[in-house]
Amino acid sequence: MIQTVWRIMLLSVVVLAASPALLVSEDARPTTAPKDPKVVLLGLIRRANALEKAKKDDEAIAEYTKIVKISSEAYGPKAHETATFTNNLAALHANIGKFDLAEPLYLQSIKIDEEALGKEDPSVAGTMCNLAMMYVSAGKPDKALPVYKRSLWIYRAKFGRKHVKAAAVLD
């Protein structure tokens, strides 16, 4: 066993001596951006979530904005993925009280999903619930009620009256 460990250590020294570039710190190594948009998006999403959790709202908004842009370029501006990321950006704006910026993003997300998935898709209802909650938080319950009603109708039509999603709208 000790001989094996020594062999590995010796081999490591030989490899490092033969390739000094391996000694360069991780930060100094040249990197190339991943080509796959899913990989890029995953990294940005992790960073945006960490920034949001750390209450670095402006930086998180910048990351979510990049995410929406990359998604729009990779999947198309009318793709469900783009709608989902637009909904997430709207939610961040709503969570920090920027309702005037959140509302058009929620409406855009709903429109994209209605075109991509159909007007009675549960994803549409989910974003509608988010929009309605934002209206309530913004002190506009009169605007929230018809949105809640429509999302409830979609959930009931899709899952039935007693499904947990339908019940959640009523909560």
How would you explain this protein's 3D organization?
This protein is an all-alpha fold. It contains eight helices and no strands. It has helices spanning 2-18, 37-53, 57-75, 80-95, 99-117, 122-137, 141-159, 164-170. The radius of gyration is 24 Å and the shape is globular. Residues 1-30 have low confidence and may be disordered.
Highlighted features:
171 residues
Q: Summary?
A:
With about 170 residues, the chain is mainly alpha-helical.
Topology summary:
Elements: H1 2-18, H2 37-53, H3 57-75, H4 80-95, H5 99-117, H6 122-137, H7 141-159, H8 164-170
Work out the helicity level.
over 70%
Q: How many DSSP helices?
A: 8
Number of strand segments: 0
Rg measurement, Å: 24 Å
Element string (H = helix, E = strand): HHHHHHHH
- The structure class reads mainly alpha
Distance between the termini: 64 Å
| Low-pLDDT sequence parts | 1-30
